[in-house]
Amino acid sequence: MNFSADLSLALPEVILAGGALLLLVWGAFQSRANAVFTLAAVAVLAAAAVAAVVGPVGRGFAGGLVADAASSFAKVAIYAASAIAIPLGQPWFRRRGINNFEFPVLIVLAALGMGMMASAGDLISLYVGVELHSLALYVMAAMHRDDAKASEAGLKYFVLGALSSGLLLYGASLIYGFAGSTRFDVIAQTVSDGAGVGILFGLVFLICGLAFKVSAAPFHMWTPDVYEGAPTPVVAFFGAAPKMAAMVLFARVLADGFGGAADQWRQILVIVALLSVAVGAFAGLAQSNLKRLWAYSSIANIGYAVLGLAAGDAAGVQAMLVFMVLYMVDVTGFFACLAALSREGRPMETISDMAGLVKERPGIALAMTAFSLSALGLPPFSGFWAKFYVFKAAIGAGLGVAAVIALVGSVVAAFYYLRLIKVMWFDAAAGAVDKPAPEARIIAVALALFTFPVVLVALAFIDPLAAAAAAAFGLA
Fold first, then answer.
1. What is the pLDDT, as a whole number, of residue 51?
2. Largest Cα–Cα distance in the chain?
3. Which of 428, 459, 272 is CA-nearest to residue 354?
4. What is the model's pLDDT at position 248?
5. According to the 3-state scheme, what is the secondary structure of the chain?
6. Which candidate in 183, 188, 202, 281 could, as Cys together with 413 as Cys, close a disulfide (CB 3.0–4.6 Å)?
7. Mean pLDDT of residues grouped by 10 in the chain (476 residues)?
8. Phi, psi of 251 (to 5 degrees)
9. What is the dihedral of CA 47, 50, 51, 55, to 10 degrees?
C-alpha cells in the first residue's frame, strides 16, 4: 500500500493533527479562547468523526494502523464525548479567570491519541497513542494552577502514569522478544495454539498497564485523588472518552493479538473485573465527596465492562461497547450537573451540599437522580440495558458465577446512589443555590433525557453498530 492510501486510512488523525496545529497558532496570536475558537475546535472533532465513518477500511503503515468498523464506532463515540467536553469546560474556566486557549487544543490532541489507540495495529502504535493522549490528560488535570488540589492531581496522575507506562513497555518488550514481531496479526499466529510462558508474562504486564489506563483494580489508586482534585469539566472528560479508547484498545490487543490464548487471559480479566466491582462498591460506601464517590463508581463500572470483555467472544465485545457508550452518557451528565452547581460561588461537591436540591433547582436534581438511577442499573434507564448486555454475554460464555458476584456488587453500590437521591429529595435545604451555568445545565438535561426515554430508541441503532464493530475483531 502506498503512502497516500495509508494517509487516507488515517484521515481522522490527519484532520485532528492539522486542526490542533492550526488552533495552536491561532491561539498563540489571540492568547485567549473566544466563542469562535471554541466552535472551531468542536468543528475539527466533528470533521474527524465524519472522516472515520466515510473513510476507507484496511490496514496501513505496515500494519500499524487499522481502520475498520470497530475503530469507526469507537472514534465517533470518542470524538462526540470530546466535543461535549469543550463547551462544558471552557466557560467553567472562564468564570474562574482562566481564559486560556490551551484547553480546546489539549482536548483535540487527546482525541488524536485516543483515535490512534482505537486503530492500533501493533505494539508501537499502541504505545504512541497511549502516551499522546496521556500527556494531554496530565496537563488538563493541573490546568487550574491556583488550586493546590488540581496541581496535586496532575502530579499524581503523571507519576503513576509513568509507572503504568513502564509496565506497558516491559510487557511489550517481552512479547516482542518471544513473538519476534510487534504486529498483532503476527503475534496472533505465534499464539494460535496458546501463549508460551514468556509471552504470557509479557501479556500480564501489558494487561496491568492497560488496566491502569481504565482505572481497573488493583491499578485504580490514582483515580479517587485525580477525580477529586482535577477541575470538574476535566473529570467529566476523564470519565468518558479516555475510558472508551482504553477499553477498545484492550479488546484490540486481546482479540487481534492474543485470540488464540483466550482461555489464558480470560482468567486474568475475570479476576480484574470482580476485584474492580468489589473495590468500587465497598470503598464508595465511605465517601462523602461526590467526585471521589463517582471515581469509585467508575472503578466498579469498568469492572462490568471488563467482565463483558472476559467473555472472549463477539457477544462479549459487543456488550462491552454498548456498556461503554451508555456509561459515557451517565458520567458526563453527572459531572455536568456538578459543574452547573455552586453555592455563594463555592462548588457543590459533597453529598451534604446536595441537601434539598430539588426545592432549589428541580431540573438539575431530576437530572442527577436520572444519572444515579442509571448508574445503579435500575430499569428502564440506560444503565440497566448496559448491565443487561454484559451479564447476558458473561452467562452465555459460561461465566455465570462471576456475573452473579458482579450483580451482588451492583446491589451494594446501590446504597450510595440511593443515599444521594434521598439527600436531594428529602433533606432540608442547606442554603440558596447559585444560578446554574447555562451550558452545563443544557448538557446535563440533554444527557439525562438520553438515559430515559431516548435510550430506548437509540439502542435500536447502537446495538447493530456495536455488533458490526465486535465482528471486526474476528472473534467467534
1. 95
2. 68
3. 428
4. 95
5. CCHHHHHHHCHHHHHHHHHHHHHHHHHHHHCCCCHHHHHHHHHHHHHHHHHHHHCCCEEECCCCEEECHHHHHHHHHHHHHHHHHHHHHHHHHHHCCCCCCHHHHHHHHHHHHHHHHHCECEHHHHHHHHHHHHHHHHHHHCCCCCCHHHHHHHHHHHHHHHHHHHHHHHHHHHHHHHHCCCEHHHHHHHCCCCCCHHHHHHHHHHHHHHHHHCCCCCCCCCHHHHHHHCCHHHHHHHCCHHHHHHHHHHHHHHHHHHHHHHHHHHHHHHHHHHHHHHHHHHHHCCCCEHHHHHHHHHHHHHHHHHHHHHCCCHHHHHHHHHHHHHHHHHHHHHHHHHHHCEECCEECCECHHHCCHHHHCHHHHHHHHHHHHHHHCCCCCHHHHHHHHHHHHHHHCCCHHHHHHHHHHHHHHHHHHHHHHHHHHHCCCCCCCCCCCHHHHHHHHHHHHHHHHHHHHHHHHHHHHHHHHHHCCCCC
6. 281
7. 84 95 89 82 96 91 90 96 94 83 92 94 93 93 82 88 90 92 90 82 92 89 91 93 94 89 88 95 92 94 94 92 96 95 87 90 94 93 95 93 93 93 88 87 95 94 94 78
8. -65, -40
9. -170
Q: How many whole angstroms separate alpha carbon 193 and alpha carbon 423?
A: 55
Instruction: Specify the amino acid at residue 308.
Output: G
Selection from 53, 101, 97, 60 nearest residue 77 by Cα: 53
Grid coordinates of 233: 469539566
Q: Is 80 left (phi over 0), alpha (psi -120 to 50) or beta?
A: alpha
Amino acid at 390: V
Contact 299, 258 (CB under 8 A): no
The phi-psi region of residue 235 (left if phi > 0; otherwise alpha if psi is between -120 and 50; otherwise beta) is alpha
Find all residues with CB under 8 Å of 420, minimum gap 6, and list them: 290, 293, 351, 354, 368, 372
Phi, psi of 289 (to 5 degrees): -80, 125
pLDDT at 450: 95
Instruction: State the pLDDT at residue 1.
Output: 55
CA distance 338 to 351: 11
Question: What's the half-sphere exposure (Cβ side, CA atoms, 13 Å) at 379?
Answer: 2
Task: Provide the β-strand partners of residue 347.
Answer: 342
Q: Smallest Cα–Cα separation from 439: which of 192, 136, 232?
A: 232
pLDDT of residue 476: 56
